[in-house]
């Protein structure tokens, strides 16, 4: 039997590239579920899959373990998230070295949220990297060449204005960032305006929109503001009355995200980063709608041709 080889539909899916973001699991059950998700999304041939990183050593081990497993058991290119929170420069440099040793070549460099909780003032470690730009420089010093950083179409909540926010992005690019991935957003005009501002500031790296398929509207509504993202009234209206109707909720989520992505494609966007991924169905369905699919394997194609 032929080795399966996946190809894209010869339509919009040929132009669009997707990546997915996963949380490192905390329990064996969650790990099984993550693995189901990874296996389901793998045939979509994402550009890369990223694994997030939390504060403290335990998540660092989890991120490293999952990234290693992705390398060993899939054909996917993993990107490791990394933050500066509660770690000295030497500790962060060690983490970078262990990722590089594991064969990781892609990174997502982040300052991270204050360990006292989002909304409190960020206190860098006394001997630590203080922001995404310093971490990006550290990654580049150790030889990383594919470094994504964050970007905020509605600006980061700590930034007093867009100029300060975009200045930080510029510092990250000057330090070696090759791609920015945005915080999730729902108003494509906000994204477009932000990209215009960024280009005017002389920043030319790809600004990849972060797309959040809404698995649970209540939860998203509760944390969105703290992350620098707003939920427009029209999005809230679409989820009205669906708290206890999971099936309709999922259908509406797929429709909202597909509408957003298709509109961005119309505006010329070709790269999309989907997160956060605890279940595959929603993202799989959205990818299907935008033409990103595992169509047929070589084996299936030749069987069909023979028939
Ligand atoms: P930076 O880029 O260093 O700074 C963010 C903004 O804060 C800047 O734009 C700047 O304007 C402002 N700022 C920073 N310092 C100052 C200052 N001294 N004075 C004035 N303004 C300042 N968090 C995790 O813990 N783990 C993850 O894996 C993770 N992954 C993420 C992936 C993406 C794509 C995104 C968008 C966010 C992610 N986060 C993650 C959340 C992120 O850690 C938080 O948003 C954090 O608050 C900021 O990190 P940063 O890298 O954006 O910070």
Task: Summarize the structure in words.
- The protein has 307 residues and is of the alpha/beta class.
- The protein has a single domain (12-306), classed as TIM Barrel.
- Helices cover 46% and strands 14% of the residues.
- Strands 1-2-3-4-5-6-7-8 form an eight-stranded parallel β-barrel, surrounded by four helices.
- Helix 5 (132-141) packs parallel to helix 6 and helix 10 packs parallel to helix 11.
- The protein is globular.
- Mean pLDDT is 89; it is low at 1-9 and 297-302.
- Flavin-adenine dinucleotide binds next to strand 3, strand 4, helix 6 and strand 6.
Summarize the structure.
The chain has 307 residues and is α/β, with parallel strands linked by helices.
Question: Any descriptors?
Answer:
TIM Barrel; single chain; disordered N terminus; 307 residues; eight-stranded parallel barrel; globular; binds flavin-adenine dinucleotide; alpha/beta
